[in-house]
Inverse folding.
């Protein structure tokens, strides 16, 4: 399970997260067996990876009035994180904040579930050097090499176009609009001009948002190549969309503990769009009313 989450996280894109305190780069992977989260403020990288045992325990600590199978909590977390991490126009039905120290980062989520307060804390510790290399250093090096190769291919194409234009001119072809005339492409001159005039603006990292908005397709292509080269193909994370079946009937009920009033049920629904930052459920655990005569928690 841990290997599945690790590989699933590697093949997820980064998202830009604007909070009241600061902005963060975040990537997350949620499967039916747990979740993995990576967070960076461009100064440090934090990581958390948990299985269903931790999900159950933390749910008991933070949401004493709510009882559900871990799949239901994971599904709800995915619904809350998706719009925030995908930077969509649909706002998340949750409030996010973070508490950061030199040794840990806690990403806090506050919302409602079936009319009751719901909260979750992602407890992230400093990421290992291996994770930083795996998710940032190696992919960024690969992206740099890919972009350099792309520039060379484009330069070669421009030179071929110049040869083609020259042949047209030698055959007597004349431009009908003089403003379209261009000078032959000189790669060295172009690179020198770029380094002097454009480099400062082009390589401005800022808060990381431009990297997220412009380069995630290339980032994903590079990380998928890494997976294919160095990891077992069959180990790729099983997204929740691939789940053949989810917990049914009583296992999907959300009820109060016996000493609390019975919670009116609400179906956990979410977007059925393809996953971008987070893997999604193909079937949402349905939360239905429990009989008032015999309130029963799923952990009882």
């Amino acid at each position: 399970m841990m290997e599945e989450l690790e590989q699933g996280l590697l093949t997820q894109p980064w998202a830009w997260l604007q909070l009241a305190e600061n902005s963060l780069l975040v990537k997350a992977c949620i499967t039916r067996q747990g979740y993995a989260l990576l967070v960076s403020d461009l100064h440090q990288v934090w990581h958390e990876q948990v299985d269903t045992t931790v999900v159950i325990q933390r749910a008991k600590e933070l949401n004493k009035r709510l009882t559900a199978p871990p799949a239901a909590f994971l599904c709800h977390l995915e619904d809350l994180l998706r719009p925030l991490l995908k930077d969509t126009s649909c706002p998340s039905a949750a409030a996010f904040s973070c508490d950061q120290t030199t040794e840990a980062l806690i990403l806090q989520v506050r919302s409602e579930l079936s009319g009751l307060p719901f909260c979750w804390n992602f407890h992230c510790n400093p990421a290992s050097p291996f994770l930083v290399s795996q998710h940032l250093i190696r992919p960024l090096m690969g992206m740099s090499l890919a972009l350099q190769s792309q520039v060379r291919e484009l330069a070669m194409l421009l030179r071929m176009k110049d040869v083609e234009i020259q042949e047209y001119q030698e055959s007597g072809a004349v431009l009908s609009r003089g403003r379209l005339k261009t000078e032959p492409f000189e790669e060295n001159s172009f690179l020198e001009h770029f380094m002097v005039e454009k480099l400062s603006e082009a390589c401005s990292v800022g808060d990381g948002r431009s990297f997220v908005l412009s380069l995630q397709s290339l980032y994903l292509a590079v990380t998928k190549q890494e997976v294919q080269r160095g990891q077992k193909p069959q180990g790729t994370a099983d997204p929740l969309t691939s789940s053949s079946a989810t917990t049914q009937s009583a296992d999907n009920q959300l009820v109060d503990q016996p000493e609390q009033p019975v919670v009116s049920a609400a179906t956990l629904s979410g977007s059925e769009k393809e996953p971008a930052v987070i893997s999604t459920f193909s079937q949402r655990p349905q939360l239905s009313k429990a009989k008032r005569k015999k309130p029963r928690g799923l952990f009882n």
About this structure: The first strand starts at residue 15 and ends at 18. The beta strands are 15-18, 23-31, 34-40, 45-51, 94-100, 105-113, 116-126. The chain has one domain: 1-149+215-300.
